[in-house]
TrEMBL record, chains A, B:
<keyword id="KW-0732">Signal</keyword>
<dbReference type="GO" id="GO:0036424">
    <property type="term" value="F:L-phosphoserine phosphatase activity"/>
</dbReference>
<comment type="pathway">
    <text>Amino-acid biosynthesis; L-serine biosynthesis; L-serine from 3-phospho-D-glycerate: step 3/3.</text>
</comment>
<dbReference type="InterPro" id="IPR036412">
    <property type="entry name" value="HAD-like_sf"/>
</dbReference>
<keyword id="KW-0378">Hydrolase</keyword>
<keyword id="KW-0479">Metal-binding</keyword>
<protein>
    <recommendedName>
        <fullName>phosphoserine phosphatase</fullName>
        <ecNumber>3.1.3.3</ecNumber>
    </recommendedName>
</protein>
<dbReference type="InterPro" id="IPR023214">
    <property type="entry name" value="HAD_sf"/>
</dbReference>
<dbReference type="GO" id="GO:0005737">
    <property type="term" value="C:cytoplasm"/>
</dbReference>
<keyword id="KW-0460">Magnesium</keyword>
<keyword id="KW-0718">Serine biosynthesis</keyword>
<keyword id="KW-0028">Amino-acid biosynthesis</keyword>
<dbReference type="GO" id="GO:0006564">
    <property type="term" value="P:L-serine biosynthetic process"/>
</dbReference>
<dbReference type="GO" id="GO:0000287">
    <property type="term" value="F:magnesium ion binding"/>
</dbReference>
<dbReference type="Pfam" id="PF12710">
    <property type="entry name" value="HAD"/>
</dbReference>
<feature type="signal peptide">
    <location>
        <begin position="1"/>
        <end position="25"/>
    </location>
</feature>
<dbReference type="InterPro" id="IPR050582">
    <property type="entry name" value="HAD-like_SerB"/>
</dbReference>
Length: 331, 331
C-alpha cells in the first residue's frame, strides 16, 4: 500500500494534469531569464486569457504581430533577404552577362557592398527588383527554398533558418497555446518570408504580411500563372505597418513586438487600442552572443522607438540580460 | 437484462459517438437536395480529408475561397453595398447640401437609379468614394454596423444579414469541421464585409479579402488613426482575385466558389493546381424563391464562367434544383 501511494505520488508530480501541460505547470519560456521583462509578458498573457480578469480578451481578438528581421531572426551583418538578393544576382549574371557592366550590379558582383550602402534605398530597391521579379510566384518560391537549403550565415556558418531567436520561438508557441493568432508584419518581402515562416516559426503563409511587388495574372498555354513584375506594390514599413495590418487582418492587434524605428507606428497603433495591450521591443545588447546596436545602426536603427517605448511603458527586451539562450541548439 | 440491452441499444442509436457528431453520422448539408451536386461536394471533401486517399491534402493546405455577392448572400435587386452607399448618400447630403446639386448624386438622391446604371462603373466608383472615404477605419466600421442594424431588404423586408444562403452557411461549417480554412474573396469592399463576416458566416476579418481604398496612418492629438482616402487601392475582381489571394493568403486554394464572370480567374487559378480540386458556381435559377439570372444580367453576369465551368467539370450549383431551402428561417 505504501508502494502504491509512492507510485501515485510520483505519477502526480511527473505527469501533466489532464488536458496537457498548462502554462502554470511548466515554464513556457525556459530561455527567458527570470526578471521584470519575462514577468511583464507572462502577466499580460495571464490577464487577457483569464475569463475572470477585467482585462480578459475573447480568443478571436487575441492578435499578436511580430516584426521579422531583428525581432524573430538576426539581421546582421545584413538583412538575410539582401544576402539572398546578392547570391541571386551572381546566378543571374551568368545568364545575363550585361548585368556585370551596369551599376550598382557591377560593384556588388565584385564584392563591393559599400557602393550599395552608399546608393541608399534606391540602389537596394534596384537590386531587389532585379533579383525578385520576372518569374512566376511558384518559380520564385522554389528559388528561395533552394537558396535556404544551401546558403550559410557568414558569421555562424549556420543555415539562415538557424538564425531565429529561441526565446521568440518559445514566445510564439506560448501565445498560440494561449489562444493567440500570431502574425508577421515585416518590411521584408512577403513572398520571401512565406517560404520558411511555417517551418521556422509555425506561422502559416496567410499570417505573414510584408512588402509586395506587383503580380499579374496571365493565362498561358500551360495554364494560369501569376507573374512577378519589377514594380513596388506596397512597402510594409513605418506608417505602412498599421496600414498593412488593417488591410490583411482588419482588426487591431493587442500585442506587438518589434526592434527598430520601422516598428514605431505598429507599436503606437497596437498600444493605443482600448483595454490592456503589450508593446515590446527587442533591444540588441549582446555583442558576444549576437550583436549590439541601436541608435547609430544603418540596419535596424532603434532610436525614436526606444525613447517612446521607455516613456510609454513598453516592454524593452534586453537581449543580453533577458535571454538565457539566443539561438536554438545546432542540430 | 433484456431491458438493459434495450436501453444500451437505444443509447447507441441516439447518442453521438465519442468525439461528437462526425460528418458520416449526420448530414452536414441538410438544405442541399440529394443529387450529383451535393455528391460532388461531399465526395471532394471526403477524398481530401481521408489520410488513406491518394487525394489527401494536409490540413494546413485546405484553403477554400468564396465570392460573397451572389455566392454567400443575395445581390439583387442591387449589390447590398450599393444600397448602403445610397442610404449613406442621403445621410451625407444633410451635412453637405452641395451634393444635391452635383451629378450623379442629384439623380440618386431623387431616387433615379437609372442614371447611375447608365453612368457605368465610373459613376458607381464615384458614389462609393463619396460614401466610403473621409472617415477613420473605426468610424467607418461603426457606420456600417449601424446601417446593418436598421436597413431592410426591399423585397423581403429582412435585415440584409438575413439574405445569406442557408445551404452555403452549412457548406462553410462543413468545410471548417473538415479542417478547411474558409476565406471570402470578393469584389466588395473589405472594410464593409468585415463588419458582418464573422457573425454572418463565421469568417473572421483576417480571412476576408476584398477591394480596398487607400488608408493613411495619422498621429492625432487623440492618438493614432487610419484615415480612409477617396482613392482606389485595389480592385479584387476578375484577374484581381488570384492576385488578392496570392497577396493575402500566399497559397493556392483547393476549392473555390463563385457565381459570376468576376470569379472566372479565381476558379481557373484554383482548379489548375496539382491534386484534386473543386471549382463550383452558384447558378441563380430560382425566380420564385430568389432570382433567376445569368448571361444578360448587369449584376452578377454569368456567361464565360458558365461555359468554362461546364467544359472543365466544375460543379454547377442549380439553386432551384439543388437547394431545399434558400434563406435561413426568419427569427
Amino acid at each position: 500500500m505504501r508502494r502504491l501511494a509512492f507510485l501515485l505520488a510520483t505519477l502526480a508530480v511527473t505527469l501533466p494534469p489532464a488536458g496537457g501541460l498548462s502554462a502554470q505547470s511548466a515554464d513556457p519560456l525556459p530561455s527567458w531569464n527570470e526578471g521584470p521583462t519575462k514577468q511583464q509578458i507572462v502577466s499580460f498573457v495571464e490577464a487577457v486569457t483569464d475569463a475572470d480578469s477585467p482585462d480578459f480578451v475573447p480568443e478571436a481578438e487575441r492578435i499578436a504581430v511580430f516584426d521579422n528581421d531583428g525581432t524573430l531572426w538576426a539581421e546582421q551583418p545584413m538583412y538575410i533577404q539582401l544576402a539572398f538578393a546578392i547570391d541571386r544576382l551572381h546566378t543571374l549574371a551568368k545568364e545575363k552577362p550585361e548585368l556585370k557592366e551596369k551599376e550598382p550590379y557591377r560593384s556588388i558582383l565584385n564584392g563591393d557592398l559599400k557602393s550599395l550602402a552608399a546608393g541608399g534605398e534606391h540602389a537596394i530597391l534596384e537590386v531587389l527588383m532585379a533579383t525578385h521579379a520576372d518569374t512566376t510566384t511558384d518559380q520564385f518560391s522554389a528559388i528561395v527554398a533552394d537558396w535556404l537549403e544551401t546558403a550559410r550565415h557568414p558569421k555562424t556558418d549556420r543555415p539562415y533558418t538557424g538564425m531565429v531567436y529561441q526565446p521568440m520561438l518559445e514566445l510564439l508557441a506560448y501565445l498560440r497555446a494561449s489562444g493567440f493568432k500570431t502574425f508577421i508584419v515585416s518590411g521584408g518581402g512577403v513572398a520571401f518570408m512565406r517560404v520558411f515562416s511555417e517551418k521556422a516559426y509555425g506561422i502559416p503563409p496567410e499570417q505573414v504580411i510584408g512588402s509586395t511587388i506587383v503580380t499579374k495574372f496571365e493565362m498561358r498555354a500551360s495554364g494560369p500563372v501569376l507573374v512577378r513584375l519589377p514594380k513596388i506594390d506596397f512597402i510594409d514599413d513605418k506608417e505602412g505597418k498599421p496600414v498593412g495590418i488593417n488591410r490583411n487582418i482588419g482588426r487591431r492587434p493587442i500585442a506587438a513586438f518589434g526592434n527598430s524605428d520601422g516598428d514605431l507606428q505598429m507599436l503606437q497603433w497596437t498600444t493605443a487600442g482600448p483595454g490592456r495591450r503589450l508593446g515590446a521591443i527587442v533591444h540588441h545588447t549582446d555583442a558576444e552572443r549576437e550583436w549590439a546596436y541601436d541608435r547609430d545602426s544603418h540596419i535596424g536603427r532603434l532610436d525614436k522607438a526606444l525613447d517612446e517605448g521607455r516613456n510609454d511603458g513598453w516592454t524593452i527586451i534586453d537581449m543580453k540580460q533577458d535571454w538565457a539562450q539566443v539561438f536554438p541548439p545546432r542540430n
